[in-house]
Design brief:
By secondary structure, the chain is an alpha/beta fold. The chain has 8 helices and 9 strands. It has helices at residues 18-25, 64-78, 88-96, 118-121, 178-187, 189-195, 199-203, 207-235; strands at 4-9, 29-34, 47-52, 83-86, 100-116, 132-144, 150-154, 159-164, 167-170. A 9-stranded mixed β-sheet has the order 2-1-3-4-9-8-7-5-6, sandwiched between helices. The protein starts with a strand and ends with a helix.
Length: 236
Protein backbone atom coordinates (compact mmCIF):
# COMPACT_ATOMS: atom_id res chain seq x y z
CA UNK A 1 0.00 0.00 0.00
CA UNK A 2 1.36 3.42 -0.96
CA UNK A 3 1.74 6.09 1.69
CA UNK A 4 -0.86 8.86 1.66
CA UNK A 5 -0.04 12.52 2.23
CA UNK A 6 -2.88 14.72 3.46
CA UNK A 7 -2.68 18.15 1.83
CA UNK A 8 -4.92 20.79 3.40
CA UNK A 9 -5.71 23.76 1.17
CA UNK A 10 -7.17 26.86 2.79
CA UNK A 11 -7.69 28.57 -0.56
CA UNK A 12 -7.72 27.33 -4.16
CA UNK A 13 -4.66 29.26 -5.32
CA UNK A 14 -2.29 28.25 -2.51
CA UNK A 15 -1.31 24.72 -3.48
CA UNK A 16 1.54 22.26 -2.89
CA UNK A 17 3.38 23.81 -5.82
CA UNK A 18 6.88 22.32 -6.06
CA UNK A 19 6.11 19.84 -3.30
CA UNK A 20 3.49 18.06 -5.43
CA UNK A 21 5.93 16.71 -8.00
CA UNK A 22 8.41 15.75 -5.29
CA UNK A 23 5.86 13.71 -3.33
CA UNK A 24 4.49 12.06 -6.46
CA UNK A 25 7.94 11.21 -7.83
CA UNK A 26 8.56 9.18 -4.66
CA UNK A 27 5.28 7.32 -5.05
CA UNK A 28 3.23 9.07 -2.41
CA UNK A 29 -0.51 9.41 -2.95
CA UNK A 30 -1.76 12.96 -2.26
CA UNK A 31 -5.21 13.41 -0.76
CA UNK A 32 -6.21 17.07 -1.02
CA UNK A 33 -8.78 18.59 1.30
CA UNK A 34 -10.30 21.97 0.39
CA UNK A 35 -11.42 23.25 3.78
CA UNK A 36 -14.34 25.33 2.53
CA UNK A 37 -16.06 22.38 0.85
CA UNK A 38 -14.52 19.15 2.19
CA UNK A 39 -14.64 17.62 5.66
CA UNK A 40 -11.41 17.79 7.60
CA UNK A 41 -10.61 14.22 8.69
CA UNK A 42 -10.52 13.40 12.38
CA UNK A 43 -8.97 9.94 12.02
CA UNK A 44 -5.32 10.21 10.96
CA UNK A 45 -4.21 6.56 10.96
CA UNK A 46 -4.04 6.28 7.18
CA UNK A 47 -1.82 9.33 6.63
CA UNK A 48 1.96 9.12 6.44
CA UNK A 49 2.31 12.89 6.65
CA UNK A 50 0.32 16.12 6.58
CA UNK A 51 0.99 19.42 4.80
CA UNK A 52 -1.07 22.46 5.81
CA UNK A 53 -0.89 25.25 3.24
CA UNK A 54 -1.32 29.01 3.21
CA UNK A 55 -4.32 31.28 2.94
CA UNK A 56 -5.45 34.89 3.28
CA UNK A 57 -7.39 34.33 6.49
CA UNK A 58 -6.08 34.85 10.03
CA UNK A 59 -5.92 32.23 12.77
CA UNK A 60 -7.47 34.68 15.26
CA UNK A 61 -10.63 34.91 13.14
CA UNK A 62 -11.43 31.47 14.60
CA UNK A 63 -13.36 30.37 11.55
CA UNK A 64 -14.97 26.93 12.00
CA UNK A 65 -12.64 25.15 9.57
CA UNK A 66 -9.59 26.83 11.13
CA UNK A 67 -10.71 25.53 14.53
CA UNK A 68 -10.99 22.06 13.03
CA UNK A 69 -7.46 22.39 11.63
CA UNK A 70 -6.21 23.37 15.10
CA UNK A 71 -7.73 20.16 16.49
CA UNK A 72 -6.20 18.11 13.68
CA UNK A 73 -2.75 19.60 14.36
CA UNK A 74 -2.93 18.80 18.08
CA UNK A 75 -4.04 15.26 17.29
CA UNK A 76 -1.32 14.73 14.69
CA UNK A 77 1.39 16.03 17.00
CA UNK A 78 0.18 13.77 19.82
CA UNK A 79 0.31 10.81 17.44
CA UNK A 80 3.73 11.95 16.15
CA UNK A 81 2.46 12.12 12.57
CA UNK A 82 4.92 14.33 10.64
CA UNK A 83 3.26 17.58 9.61
CA UNK A 84 4.55 20.58 7.74
CA UNK A 85 2.79 23.94 7.94
CA UNK A 86 3.52 26.66 5.39
CA UNK A 87 2.66 30.33 6.06
CA UNK A 88 -0.90 30.15 7.50
CA UNK A 89 -0.13 26.48 8.13
CA UNK A 90 2.84 27.43 10.32
CA UNK A 91 0.70 29.93 12.19
CA UNK A 92 -1.94 27.28 12.82
CA UNK A 93 0.71 24.89 14.16
CA UNK A 94 2.11 27.61 16.43
CA UNK A 95 -1.35 28.45 17.82
CA UNK A 96 -2.43 24.81 18.18
CA UNK A 97 0.67 23.83 20.14
CA UNK A 98 0.73 26.72 22.60
CA UNK A 99 1.96 29.82 20.77
CA UNK A 100 -0.01 32.90 19.80
CA UNK A 101 -0.72 34.32 16.35
CA UNK A 102 -1.11 38.08 15.96
CA UNK A 103 -0.93 40.82 13.35
CA UNK A 104 2.66 41.77 12.57
CA UNK A 105 4.02 45.29 12.51
CA UNK A 106 4.57 45.09 8.76
CA UNK A 107 3.60 42.77 5.94
CA UNK A 108 6.35 40.81 4.26
CA UNK A 109 5.47 40.45 0.57
CA UNK A 110 8.19 39.61 -1.93
CA UNK A 111 11.77 38.35 -1.62
CA UNK A 112 13.42 38.52 1.80
CA UNK A 113 16.53 37.12 3.44
CA UNK A 114 16.10 34.49 6.12
CA UNK A 115 18.85 33.20 8.41
CA UNK A 116 18.96 29.48 9.18
CA UNK A 117 20.41 28.88 12.65
CA UNK A 118 22.46 25.90 13.89
CA UNK A 119 19.35 23.98 14.91
CA UNK A 120 17.81 24.54 11.50
CA UNK A 121 20.97 23.40 9.69
CA UNK A 122 20.72 20.11 11.56
CA UNK A 123 16.98 19.72 11.06
CA UNK A 124 14.55 20.49 8.23
CA UNK A 125 17.09 22.66 6.37
CA UNK A 126 19.94 20.15 6.57
CA UNK A 127 21.69 20.17 3.20
CA UNK A 128 21.22 23.87 2.42
CA UNK A 129 24.77 25.17 2.34
CA UNK A 130 23.96 28.87 2.77
CA UNK A 131 22.98 30.12 6.22
CA UNK A 132 21.41 33.24 4.72
CA UNK A 133 18.89 32.41 1.98
CA UNK A 134 16.54 34.54 -0.10
CA UNK A 135 12.98 33.23 0.02
CA UNK A 136 9.50 34.32 -0.98
CA UNK A 137 7.17 35.79 1.62
CA UNK A 138 3.50 36.76 1.64
CA UNK A 139 2.12 37.28 5.11
CA UNK A 140 0.94 39.93 7.53
CA UNK A 141 0.54 37.82 10.65
CA UNK A 142 3.27 36.40 12.84
CA UNK A 143 3.43 34.30 16.00
CA UNK A 144 5.12 33.66 19.31
CA UNK A 145 6.68 30.22 19.51
CA UNK A 146 5.13 27.55 21.71
CA UNK A 147 7.22 27.26 24.88
CA UNK A 148 8.85 23.94 23.96
CA UNK A 149 9.38 24.72 20.26
CA UNK A 150 12.85 25.01 18.73
CA UNK A 151 13.51 28.01 16.47
CA UNK A 152 15.07 26.94 13.16
CA UNK A 153 15.19 30.17 11.13
CA UNK A 154 14.37 33.86 11.46
CA UNK A 155 14.36 37.15 9.57
CA UNK A 156 15.08 40.64 10.85
CA UNK A 157 11.39 40.97 11.71
CA UNK A 158 9.93 37.59 12.61
CA UNK A 159 10.55 33.95 13.57
CA UNK A 160 10.45 32.06 10.28
CA UNK A 161 10.65 28.34 11.06
CA UNK A 162 10.36 26.07 14.08
CA UNK A 163 9.90 22.50 15.19
CA UNK A 164 7.86 21.04 18.00
CA UNK A 165 7.86 17.24 18.13
CA UNK A 166 6.81 15.91 14.72
CA UNK A 167 5.53 19.32 13.60
CA UNK A 168 7.46 21.77 11.43
CA UNK A 169 6.25 25.33 10.78
CA UNK A 170 7.75 27.45 7.99
CA UNK A 171 6.38 30.98 7.61
CA UNK A 172 7.91 31.63 4.18
CA UNK A 173 7.08 29.97 0.87
CA UNK A 174 9.48 27.45 -0.70
CA UNK A 175 6.78 25.78 -2.76
CA UNK A 176 5.85 28.67 -5.04
CA UNK A 177 6.37 28.80 -8.79
CA UNK A 178 6.29 31.95 -10.90
CA UNK A 179 2.81 30.98 -12.14
CA UNK A 180 1.54 30.64 -8.56
CA UNK A 181 2.86 34.08 -7.66
CA UNK A 182 1.32 35.53 -10.82
CA UNK A 183 -2.05 34.12 -9.70
CA UNK A 184 -1.58 35.55 -6.22
CA UNK A 185 -0.84 39.02 -7.56
CA UNK A 186 -4.22 38.99 -9.29
CA UNK A 187 -6.17 37.78 -6.25
CA UNK A 188 -4.21 39.59 -3.54
CA UNK A 189 -3.48 42.81 -5.43
CA UNK A 190 -4.86 45.05 -2.69
CA UNK A 191 -2.21 43.78 -0.29
CA UNK A 192 0.51 44.65 -2.79
CA UNK A 193 -0.78 48.22 -2.96
CA UNK A 194 -0.52 48.45 0.82
CA UNK A 195 3.22 47.78 0.72
CA UNK A 196 3.85 49.63 -2.55
CA UNK A 197 5.05 46.85 -4.84
CA UNK A 198 3.93 45.57 -8.26
CA UNK A 199 3.80 42.10 -9.76
CA UNK A 200 6.80 42.99 -11.90
CA UNK A 201 8.82 43.77 -8.77
CA UNK A 202 8.46 40.20 -7.51
CA UNK A 203 8.35 38.18 -10.76
CA UNK A 204 10.42 39.87 -13.47
CA UNK A 205 14.09 38.97 -13.61
CA UNK A 206 13.78 36.48 -10.74
CA UNK A 207 14.76 33.29 -12.59
CA UNK A 208 17.72 32.57 -10.31
CA UNK A 209 15.60 33.23 -7.21
CA UNK A 210 12.95 30.75 -8.41
CA UNK A 211 15.62 28.19 -9.25
CA UNK A 212 17.21 28.52 -5.81
CA UNK A 213 13.80 28.34 -4.16
CA UNK A 214 13.02 25.06 -5.95
CA UNK A 215 16.35 23.65 -4.75
CA UNK A 216 15.64 24.69 -1.17
CA UNK A 217 12.19 23.14 -1.45
CA UNK A 218 13.74 19.84 -2.56
CA UNK A 219 16.05 19.80 0.47
CA UNK A 220 13.17 20.49 2.85
CA UNK A 221 11.11 17.81 1.11
CA UNK A 222 13.88 15.23 1.48
CA UNK A 223 14.23 15.97 5.19
CA UNK A 224 10.47 15.86 5.71
CA UNK A 225 10.32 12.57 3.80
CA UNK A 226 12.93 11.16 6.19
CA UNK A 227 10.67 12.15 9.08
CA UNK A 228 7.85 10.22 7.41
CA UNK A 229 10.04 7.14 6.89
CA UNK A 230 11.22 7.22 10.50
CA UNK A 231 7.64 7.53 11.76
CA UNK A 232 6.46 4.69 9.55
CA UNK A 233 9.24 2.42 10.87
CA UNK A 234 7.97 2.88 14.43
CA UNK A 235 4.50 1.70 13.39
CA UNK A 236 5.55 -1.57 11.77
Amino acid sequence: MKDIILSIQNTEIETLGNFKELFESDGYIIETIHVKKDKIPKELDKYAGIVILGGYMSVYEYLPYLNEELDLIKNANNLQVPQLGICLGSQLIAEALGGRVYKGKQKEIGWYNVVINNEGRNDIFKGISNNNIKVFQWHGDTFTLPSSAVLLASSNSYPQAFRLGSSIGILFHLEVTSQMIHDWTKDYGSEMKEVGISSGDIINGKNSEFENLANYCKVVYENFSKMITAHRSTMI
